[in-house]
Amino acid sequence: QVQVVESGGGSVQTGGSLRLSCVASGDTYTNYCMGWFRQAPGKEREGVAAIDSDGSTSYRDSVEGRFTISRDNAKNTLYLQMNSLNPEDTAMYYCAAADSYLDYLRSEYIFRGQGTQVTVSS
User: How many other C-beta atoms are found inside a 10 Å radius of the C-beta of residue 34?
Assistant: First the structure.
């Protein structure tokens, strides 16, 4: 059984930075598409960023240029560096893995984490 642990969330002011980490044990996700999605209270889930097994990345428009997704397959760890945060980024952030980028977009996850809260105050 895969265990997923996310960390790095917290409370920051507008313009601040956070780095999220996601470690998966019990499986190796070298060949998976990995990504982060977020959900704020009363709002729909939205994909934030994804990184495929070949290292190609994609971002939602609102975070492009501010967030950077990366992965360290040797450590089974996924990262999300978030800079220039603003209150609209406030949400619970989750990491997830899928067999392909298409499956990731369809939310057909192999596993996902329990989330880490990010709160940005103005």
Answer: 27
Q: What are phi and psi of 67, to 5 degrees?
A: -110, 150
Output Rg (C-alpha) for the chain, integer angstroms.
13
pLDDT band at 83 (very low <50, low <70, confident <90, very high): very high
How far out from the chain centre does Cα 96 lie? 7
Please say whether the dihedral angle defined by the alpha carbons of residues 90, 61, 50 and 47, taken in this order, is positive or negative: positive
Identity at 72, one-letter amino acid code? D
Asked if residue 100 lies in contact with residue 109, where contact means CB atoms within 8 angstroms, the answer is: no
Read off the pLDDT of residues 86-101 as tens digits, 9 standing for 90 and up.
Answer: 999 999 999 999 999 9
